[in-house]
Design brief:
Structural class: mainly alpha
Oligomer: single chain
Distance between the termini: 53 Å
Order of helices and strands: H
Length: 36
């Protein structure tokens, strides 16, 4: 039971990290677009 929970947490953490990375890249691109 606990192992399945840890696997789910690991998948959720990776997904959140990817979403945060994409969000940061999008914000960076929009800021650079505003500056130019």
């Amino acid at each position: 039971m606990s192992q399945a929970v840890w696997i789910a947490v690991g998948i959720d953490w990776e997904a959140r990290c990817q979403i945060l990375a994409v969000d940061r890249m999008a914000n960076h691109e929009s800021r650079s677009a505003w500056m130019t």
